[in-house]
Amino acid sequence: MIGFIRQQLKTSTQGGSASGGKNHKLKTIYLLYGGSVNAKNVGDFLAMKQIDGALVGGASLHPSEFKKMVKIAESIK
């Protein structure tokens, strides 16, 4: 599904832009996962080659949890 979303975004951004009509082409699309990411599951998400990163919400409010997540991310990416 993630690959499908990436391809659809790439296809829909090839060509003109609604903001001025210039031909802007997207070179790279980065996909972040942002659904209830925590220290227990962030490693699984980041290990997926289709996901480029994680958008951390509530877990970022807990310093010890966030620190664990950063360490896990550093070891994977």
Structure description:
By secondary structure, the chain is mostly helical. The chain folds into two domains: 26 residues, no CATH class; 47 residues, no CATH class. It has three helices and two strands, in the order αβαβα. α2 links the parallel β1 and β2. The longest helix is centred in the C-terminal third of the chain and has 14 residues. The two termini are 21 Å apart. The model has no long low-confidence stretch (mean pLDDT 82).
Summary, kept brief:
The protein is mainly alpha-helical and 77 residues long. The protein is built from three helices and two strands, in the order H-E-H-E-H.
SSE topology:
Elements: H1 2-13, E1 32-33, H2 42-46, E2 53-54, H3 63-76
Structural class: mainly alpha
Helix content: 40-55%
Overall geometry comes to elongated
Strand % is 5-15%
Main sheet summary: 2 strands, parallel
Distance between the termini: 21 Å
Number of domains: 2
Q: Using only CA atoms, what is the Rg?
A: 16 Å
Helices and strands, in order, run as: HEHEH
Whole-number average pLDDT?
82
Number of helices: 3
Give the low-pLDDT segments.
none
The side-by-side strand order for the widest beta sheet comes to 1-2
Total strand segments: 2
Q: Could you list some keywords that capture this structure?
A:
mainly alpha; 2 strands; 5% strand; 40% helix; 77 residues; two-stranded parallel ribbon; single chain; 2 domains
